[in-house]
Structure formats: C-alpha cells, structure tokens
Amino acid sequence: QVQLVESGGGLVQPGGSLRLSCAASGFDFINYWMYWVRQAPGKGLEWVAAISATDGRTYYADSVKGRFTGSRDNAKNILYLQMNSLKLEDTAQYYCAREHITQYRSWYDYWGQGTQVTVSA
C-alpha cells in the first residue's frame, strides 16, 4: 500500500523559511523520481520541483529557483523541500507525488494529502 504523507506546513512571514517533509512507504522509494507540486488559492496545479531517483538530482520551476531546495533521504524514505525567502505568492497547498513511468508516457500515480503553507505578514 503506497502512502505519501506531507508535513511541515504552517504560517510564516514573508522572507521566512519552512521545511516540508514527505514520508513515503509501501514501495521502493529509492527507485522513483519524486515531485513537489502546489496549488495556490484560485489557481491550478503548479509543478515546483523534481528530484531524480537514487541520486536526487534536482530541477525547479523558475518561480522558486534559488529559493527552494529539494532533496531526498533514501535511508529514511523521506522527501524534503527546504523553502527560503518565502513570498506571499508561495502560499499554496503543497503535495508530494510519485512518478509512474511506462514505455510511452509518465504521470503522477500517487499523491500525498497535502500540507498548507501560508505566507502572510
């Protein structure tokens, strides 16, 4: 039974920092690309960061590059998102997701329940 459980969200002031965690279970975490995706109020889903399988190479949306850092601890089966220099526009529900890959295409096959990040003065 695959499970992804996000935690670490909360209320933070602009310029502040927050670290999100995603605890994974029920699958061989090390062999999967993982992602952070967010949904701001009134907006659609926005890809934030990708973390490659095994060695954790990272890729970021332009909106967060230089401020956010994704990482993974394969020994603990935990995905992280360190968020620094937070802005009002970072306010969103943050999800971690697992990539499903086939010969022809890939998509997110499992999602966590999400954790709310609110940036407000």
Descriptive account of the structure:
- By secondary structure, this protein is mainly β.
- Helix content is 0%, strand content 54%.
- Strands 2, 4, 5, 6, 9, 10 and 11 form a 7-stranded mixed β-sheet that branches.
- A hairpin with a 4-residue loop joins strand 7 (68-73) and strand 8 (78-83).
- The radius of gyration is 14 Å and the shape is globular.
Main traits of this protein?
11 strands; globular; mainly beta; 121 residues; seven-stranded mixed sheet
Structure summary:
By secondary structure, the protein is mostly beta strands. 0% of the residues lie in helices and 54% in strands.
Low-confidence stretches: none
Query: What is the CA-CA span between the terminal residues?
Result: 40 Å
Shape: globular
- Strand tally, please? 11
What count of helical segments does DSSP give? 0
- Tell me, rounded to a whole number, the average pLDDT: 97
**Roughly what fraction of the amino acids lie in strands?**
over 45%
Quickly give the structural class. mainly beta
Measured as a percent range, the helix fraction is under 10%
Tell me the major beta sheet. Answer: 7 strands, mixed
Helix/strand order, N-terminal first: EEEEEEEEEEE
Rg over C-alpha atoms, rounded to the nearest angstrom: 14 Å
